Predict the structure of Transmembrane emp24 domain-containing protein 7.
Amino acid sequence: MLLRGYGTAGPWGWLTLLLVACAAWASEITFELPDNAKQCFYEEIVQGTKCTLEFQVITGGHYDVDCRLEGPDGSVLYKEMKKQYDSFTFTASRNGTYKFCFSNEFSTFTHKTVYFDFQVGEDPPLFPSENRATALTQMESACVSIHEALKSVIDYQTHFRLREAQGRSRAEDLNTRVAYWSIGEAIILFVVSIGQVFLLKSFFSDKRTTTTRVAS
């Protein structure tokens, strides 16, 4: 599968294109989406091919992003606003270039890390003669079963890694907020303590009054 990326992500766009170039045979990509940015990917798909787009926001803000999928004629096949994760399956109605974009334009200062998996078509058979009319041998059936089980394991591992990364991001964000809150409380306690000291000191200090006598 060949993906092409294009967007307004500045220097991160080049990083995304590098990741795409290094993983041109793969359908899973994780990229950085800056604030006020939009990143698009393009894929040449043949008519009648079944495709699945799955995405999830790993870090940043409220973990949401806008997603839009368009056909070769510009028709909108899928559009969701501020979604944390979702999956969409469709069958290509015509030959051409399909475009799907992720937008963070609604965010003013929060960067996002987005993962997506774009699957085009079915996996090739494990054996060239797997689709033959005769039944598979016991060894071939065992290999096919192991192959399907390993694919399920890979999918589970991917989702667990995404959940771990998201949980770690939330924990670090919570830790940062707690640290700032603790520093603020310490500063407030210090100021209140100093104020109480000066207030108590003013209660016990000697007040001298000056009496002015006017000579008659």
